[in-house]
Amino acid sequence: MGSGVSRQVERRKALTVERRKLYDLHQSCGEDFPACAFRPSDRKNWMDDLHPEKLQICKIVWPGTHDSATDRIGIPLVTRPFAQCQTLSVYRQLVLGCRVLDIRVQKDRRVCHGILVSYNVDVVINDIKKFLSETHSEIIILEVRTEYGHDDPPEFDKYLVDHLGQFLIHHNDNVFHKTISEVLPKRIICIWKPRNSPNPKNGSPLWNSGHLKDDWINTDLPSTKFESNLKYLSEQPPVSARKFFYRVENTVTPRPDNPVVCVGPVTKRIHEFARLFITQCFSRGIADRLQIFSTDYIDEDFVDACVALTYARAEGKA
């Protein structure tokens, strides 16, 4: 009993130190990067506003969401706080400006996060279709994966092609250097990551797991995650030189050995430091590597930061 209490005291001390590190860094460095004050006039159509005929796919800083379809996961006020990473529906996230979706499924095609389940993936597909019907030049990266510990939905690759085929941008390494206008009217880069089924082949309508990479570390300590993100990002080639998307997630996650196990209060330890992260990318000379930037509880300022850097790249300012 005593050792358990001692561990928790040490963890609380570590958390206090980690938060202070980020606040001190923010105090000394601020949030200053090229075009950081830019705000899109219409977040729902922000790609369309940035001249699709000029904006290359690889130069976009894609605002994304972590565990995107968890707005209605579990039982409200009972299990939901332990797994909910977004409060907005997929459609509302897209309207807000999100352009990368992280969808986890289980064998029966229901969306899940760990052992908790939500609606059928049809809800996600319908939300995407609704958004695409209301816009003209917005491109979405849709990552669908079988959740850890679950079996693949049968013939799920066929399901995705059947339901999204008219929108799918087929795999081709040349896509990275094409402009948005050059891939239209196709609108979705769909990355399917099964656990046991065969991966999509190169050149198929679906992209395989090798085309979206990240370096996830499981920690609830914000400075540890912040510095890990910078370290792994620094090891990547610049966006202009790689043939895959690389994601950085501005999130921390609850740990079972910590009394605080609800997603909200834990991930908020790092949530406010997204602009600081972009600023540090410039300070450390790795801003040309940042591409997909994801978060829990996406908000307008997070989207604006990603769009601002995209705008700076499009205008030759970054």
TrEMBL record:
The keyword Hydrolase applies. SMART domains: PLCXc. It comes from the Eukaryota. The keyword Thylakoid does not apply. Residues 51-193 form the Phosphatidylinositol-specific phospholipase C X domain. Coiled coil: none annotated. Its EC number is 3.1.4.11, 4.6.1.13. This is Putative phosphoinositide phospholipase C, Phosphatidylinositol diacylglycerol-lyase.
